[in-house]
């Protein structure tokens, strides 16, 4: 029977899921510098959750742990994952990831991978050692989804708390609660229920196979900074970011993407220096529309992408063009 199970590699980046604290009631201080305990390896996770062996033939990636701290790390990890997915014997991939920037890695992979094979990312809000840890169930569900034929072609997926989300739409919404991952307006794609995996919808925006973004070995992502709008914010940080080398800016605007008192500075950066400026919103839901009160020539509206995801798309867009109209078309498509 084992020979008939799909081959699904397990790739890991630094994460809470395999972390261990000194006691079962320690939920906060589980990093090695506090606990003295290293994170579990992939092999240790498989041994601790033997039920995984009934879902797939799991190959622990020899390169674990993979770094995802910088855009260069993300690009290197994406290229490596592509090489794994290109193998004929591999049916899909599961990634154990820290929850803090899981949505960013997931969206980046969603934009850059060229494969229909399921890529499922999961993590945990509580260390493996804690009472009520969510890690084992999330990892079990991730492999269930990766082994599910219906998951094919749906792009990169985030699985947690029995829910299946599109990497484009999902975001972390709570610091410690296990129901942290939500696709606020669009909702989950489906669920990892006790009896079976069920999907109710599929992503419509371009992703993976239909994406135009491919990473060559020499691809260098331009610097894109996120500037947060708040009462009293001025354009000084935007000017400083450009002076320090930023090729693009994403504005986490108030309301529906208002840039407040930064508006004149940003307009000048677009006009005089050709800096790409994408307007997003800090509110967490809703679209930023292009033809509104705060649009200036050369600016791009980020649709309903949050600032951190808009920054990744803008960086990838800038590897292909600096034309605001062409970049806007990308934001309208992805």
Describe what this molecule looks like in 3D.
By secondary structure, this protein is of the alpha/beta class. It is 27% helix and 17% strand. It is built from 9 helices and 14 strands. Strands 2-1-3-4-5-6-9-10 form an 8-stranded mixed β-sheet, sandwiched between helices. A hairpin with a 4-residue loop joins strand 9 and strand 10 (197-199). The longest helix has 15 residues, at 71-85. 46% of the residues are buried. The mean pLDDT is 97.
Biggest β-sheet: count, sense, barrel? 8 strands, mixed
Order of adjacent strands in the largest pleated sheet? 2-1-3-4-5-6-9-10
- Beta percentage is 15-25%
Query: Looking at the structure, what is the overall shape?
Result: globular
Question: Which structural category fits the helices and strands?
Answer: alpha/beta
Specify the oligomeric state: single chain
Q: How many beta strands in the DSSP annotation?
A: 14
Please, how many helices?
9
Helix and strand run: EHHEHEHEHEEEEEEEHEHEEHH
Q: Mean pLDDT score, rounded? A: 97
* Low-confidence sequence ranges: none
Rg is: 20 Å
Q: What is the helix content?
A: 25-40%
Explain the layout of strands and helices.
Layout: E1 7-12, H1 32-35, H2 42-48, E2 57-60, H3 71-85, E3 93-96, H4 102-112, E4 119-122, H5 135-146, E5 156-160, E6 163-166, E7 171-172, E8 181-182, E9 190-192, E10 197-199, E11 224-228, H6 236-243, E12 248-253, H7 263-273, E13 276-281, E14 299-301, H8 307-318, H9 324-333
Parallel strand pairs: 1-2, 1-3, 3-4, 4-5, 11-12, 12-13, 13-14
Antiparallel strand pairs: 5-6, 6-9, 7-8, 9-10
Helix pairs in contact: 4-8
């Amino acid at each position: 029977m084992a020979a008939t199970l799909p081959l699904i590699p397990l790739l890991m980046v630094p994460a809470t899921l395999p972390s261990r604290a000194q006691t079962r009631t320690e939920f906060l201080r589980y990093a090695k510098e506090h606990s003295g305990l290293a994170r579990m390896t992939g092999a240790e996770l498989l041994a601790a959750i033997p039920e995984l062996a009934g879902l797939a033939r799991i190959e622990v990636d020899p390169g674990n742990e993979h770094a995802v701290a910088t855009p260069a790390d993300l690009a290197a990890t994406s290229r490596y994952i592509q090489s794994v997915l290109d193998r004929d014997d591999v049916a899909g991939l599961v990634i154990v990831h820290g929850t803090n920037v899981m949505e960013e890695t997931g969206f980046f992979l969603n934009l850059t991978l060229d494969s229909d094979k399921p890529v499922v990312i999961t993590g945990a809000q509580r260390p493996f050692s804690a009472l009520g840890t969510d890690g084992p169930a999330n990892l079990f569900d991730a492999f269930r989804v990766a082994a599910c034929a219906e998951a094919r072609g749906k792009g990169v997926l985030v699985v947690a708390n029995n829910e299946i989300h599109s990497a484009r739409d999902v975001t972390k919404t709570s610091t410690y609660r296990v129901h942290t991952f939500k696709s606020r307006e669009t909702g989950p794609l489906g669920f990892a229920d006790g009896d079976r995996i069920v999907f109710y919808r599929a992503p419509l925006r371009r992703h993976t196979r239909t994406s135009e973004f491919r990473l060559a070995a020499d691809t260098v992502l331009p610097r894109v900074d996120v500037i947060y709008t708040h009462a009293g914010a001025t354009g000084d940080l935007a000017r400083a970011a450009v002076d320090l080398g930023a090729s693009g800016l994403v504005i986490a605007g108030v309301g529906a993407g208002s840039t407040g008192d930064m508006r004149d500075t940003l307009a000048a950066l677009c006009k005089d220096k050709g800096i790409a400026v994408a307007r997003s919103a800090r509110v967490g839901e809703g679209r930023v529309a292009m033809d509104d009160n705060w649009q200036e020539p050369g600016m791009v509206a980020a649709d309903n992408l949050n600032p951190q995801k808009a920054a990744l798309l803008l960086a990838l867009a800038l590897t292909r063009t600096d034309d605001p109209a062409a970049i806007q078309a990308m934001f309208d498509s992805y």
